[in-house]
Amino acid sequence: MTAALISALSTACAIWLWTGPTTPALRLHTLLTAPRHRPPWPHLLRTTLTRPGPARRADAWRRASIELCQSLSAELAAGRTPGEALTRAIAGVDFPDPEALRPALAAARDGGDVSAALTAAAPAQGGEGLRRLAACWDVSITVGAGMSALVERVGSTLRAAQTHRQDVAAQLAGPRTTARMLAALPILGLLMAGALDMHPLNFLFGTLPGLLCLLSGAALDACGLWWTHRMAIKAQP
């Protein structure tokens, strides 16, 4: 009976972890329900823990670049000059780091080197759209090609690449979830062994063979997670 109860609780916890609220939802709930006067260190700790990783930040930059191309193409189609169109387009897009685009805004308003400003603002990961837009700006100024057609082509290319990345991520979600569940199975095994009064912790931490088994199992578990993550990273474009 105890083993069945522990198994049911473990299964419920696993289901909640995989289907529970996402980090943005938790952050929104915290912002809406948190008091105004709060100590600085919990806020700093929460900000550090909820900071987006490099992959999510790169994806946010790619999405913002697609929106920028769409807005810029619409502004150019409305008959505005390239500098004015870029200023209005940048102001209407929510970038992950708006301060990085301030030099580009200044260059577009004052007639400066917009291409260099866009290239400098583009991050190493996720800045492909800004670098391609900078190349379009150079081509338009040097050759005299139509800026609207170039931006529209860059936007369509970025949208196709983003769709492909989403398809690959969706296909990799299953193997990643399976690897994480398999990595958590030893913990469930320890709980079931403890429910059967087998004292697994005494064996693992109290004897030399148990300690060797614990270290080797943890090492193999970590290697499996690392190898799965490595394969998933290589499969992504």
Short account of what is shown:
With 237 residues, the chain is an all-alpha fold. It has helices at residues 2-19, 23-33, 40-49, 54-77, 82-91, 102-110, 114-121, 128-143, 147-195, 200-206, 208-235.
Descriptive account of the structure:
The structure is a single chain. The chain is mostly helical and 237 residues long. It has a domain at 55-163. Helices cover 80% and strands 0% of the residues. It has 11 helices and no strands. The chain has helices at residues 2-19, 23-33, 40-49, 54-77, 82-91, 102-110, 114-121, 128-143, 147-195, 200-206, 208-235. Helix 4 (54-77) packs parallel to helix 8 and helix 10 (200-206) crosses helix 11 (208-235). It starts with a helix and ends with a helix. The model is unreliable at 34-39 and 43-50 (pLDDT under 50).
Topology:
Elements: H1 2-19, H2 23-33, H3 40-49, H4 54-77, H5 82-91, H6 102-110, H7 114-121, H8 128-143, H9 147-195, H10 200-206, H11 208-235
Helix pairs in contact: 1-9, 4-5, 4-8, 4-9, 5-6, 6-7, 7-8, 8-9, 9-11, 10-11
Task: Write a concise keyword list for the protein shown above.
237 residues, mainly alpha, 11 helices, elongated
Percent in helix: over 70%
List low-pLDDT spans: 34-39, 43-50
Q: What Rg, in angstroms, do the CA atoms define?
A: 26 Å
Helix count, DSSP H or I runs of 4 or more residues? 11
| Global mean pLDDT | 78
Shape: elongated
Major sheet details: none
